[in-house]
Specification:
alpha/beta; Rossmann fold; Dihydrodipicolinate Reductase, domain 2; 2 domains; nine-stranded mixed sheet; six-stranded parallel sheet; 12 helices; about 30% helix; binds nicotinamide-adenine-dinucleotide
Length: about 400
């Protein structure tokens, strides 16, 4: 763990930041940005419902509470973080860019590749930079995985399994209905974390395919003001997918809002020299663990307790850069600000967003048509963050 105050020793100039959407995740963004990222000065929050913005502003001591249009007209705001529900991202992103603000959008960036391309073309026209969630692949755990992989700790990778198995959001989210409408579901809500981790670590996707299932038509709400009511389900809530990366690595991905208990690993990469495992790409902080082939082969003919224990054990690997927090948001916004400062592309920028959006659309198309989907976009692995370094200094 780092000394948290170090994170505020920023070398960047200060950016005026506005939050659009004053719901659940806005609180994580604001708390983390205020605590860790000095360069990002949150000067205003907004919502379609002004009272929600007012409450949020009071909670975090933010000077201004707005409705959407007012935020976009405020000359003090340079970067807007769009934290509205998925169905509003494209329309609001265009308004943000139209107002000449740099944009960081929550996931999913857009429902289709065509819409993502439109938003990004508009950003170019307006001279604005764009970043998007998930930014968890920038955090210490997954960045450390990147260095260990590149150092050959498991030899040549050939297979990844990623499994997001939950029973949906209606047990904890106060507004769960949006998660079961077109444009959301586990594929748009959760697959982005796993796909962006895979692409950031192992490179772009070439071909993919998926099957989907929708075990229930109505979901029961268990928490919040709507507890006891039912939500109609408009889309599949389980996807099982396969993919092949440009590198030849084969991927198996399951994302589900229908699984109540599971022993599937959340994220494991297999190479010809061993296995790397990671607790959950939805979380930035997490300790990678390794199992090396020699643990088995060196003791293959021994069955004494020490050899047997070694055959089973995964070894923890140190994280190579400071861990901000286990569950954290805002690093992608810092990376965007650092890129604006340095005049370089940001890590979760256009190429990456287009590729992940196409993969999400391709998985849904494949599940509908029963055909393989061949990707038309590609991207390079994002620049790694140097061991020991803070993202803003790289
Ligand atoms: N909740 C989480 O744990 C979580 C985690 C990571 C990412 N996200 C993503 O963040 C986004 C928001 O999720 P949430 O859970 O905070 O949702 P939420 O429903 O709690 O909050 C969304 C807010 O946006 C406001 N809003 C709706 N339409 C608007 C408009 N046109 N203009 C301005 N404000 C508008 C709503 O009034 C609401 O306050 C989603 O894209 C989601 O995928 C959520």
């Amino acid at each position: 763990m780092c000394n948290m105050t170090d994170w505020r020793g920023s070398a960047l100039r200060t950016y005026g930041v506005g939050i659009l959407g004053s719901g659940v995740i806005s609180r994580t963004y604001i708390a983390d940005i205020q605590k860790f990222y000095k360069a990002l000065d949150i000067r205003a929050v907004a919502d379609i419902d002004w009272r929600l913005a007012r409450t949020l502003a009071d909670e975090f001591g933010i000077p201004k509470a707005y409705v959407t249009g007012e935020l976009l007209q405020d000359p003090d705001i340079e970067i807007v973080i769009n934290l509205t529900p998925p169905q509003f991202h494209v329309e609001l992103d265009k308004q943000i860019l139209g107002a000449g603000k740099h944009l960081f959008s929550e996931k999913p960036f857009a429902p289709t590749l065509a819409e993502a391309a439109q938003v990004l073309a508009y950003a170019r026209e307006k001279g604005c930079m764009v970043g998007g969630a998930p930014d968890t692949f920038l955090c210490s755990g997954l960045q450390s995985m990147r260095w260990y992989l590149d150092a050959g700790i498991i030899g040549t990778p050939f297979f990844v399994t990623a499994n997001m198995t939950t029973f949906g959001v209606e047990t904890w989210h106060p507004n769960p209905a949006a998660f079961y409408r077109q444009g959301a579901g586990p594929i748009m809500d959760m697959a982005p974390y796993y796909l962006s981790a895979i692409v950031a670590l192992l490179g772009p996707i070439e071909t993919l395919a998926a099957f989907s299932a929708q075990p229930s038509q109505i979901r029961r709400v268990y928490a919040g003001p709507r507890a006891g009511s039912g939500i109609p389900v408009e889309l599949p809530t389980h996807y099982s997918a396969i993919a092949r990366l440009r590198s030849g690595v084969v991927v198996n991905l399951n994302v589900s809002f229908d699984i109540y208990g599971s022993n599937l690993p959340m994220f494991e990469i297999y190479g010809d020299g061993g296995t790397l495992t990671y607790p959950d790409p939805n979380f930035g902080g997490g300790t990678p663990r390794v199992y090396r082939k020699e643990q088995y082969t060196d003791t293959a003919y021994r069955n004494d307790p020490e050899a047997e224990a070694r055959k089973r054990r995964f070894y923890e690997l140190p994280e190579l850069m400071p861990r901000v927090k286990d569950y954290s948001r805002g690093l992608g916004v810092l990376d965007l600000a650092a890129a604006i400062d340095a005049g370089v592309p940001n890590r979760s920028g256009p190429e990456f967003l287009l590729h992940i959006t196409e993969a999400l659309e391709g998985l849904q198309l494949s599940a509908k048509t029963g055909s393989f989907y061949t990707m038309t976009t590609t991207c390079e692995r994002t620049r790694p963050i140097a061991p020991g370094g803070y993202p803003e200094t790289i």
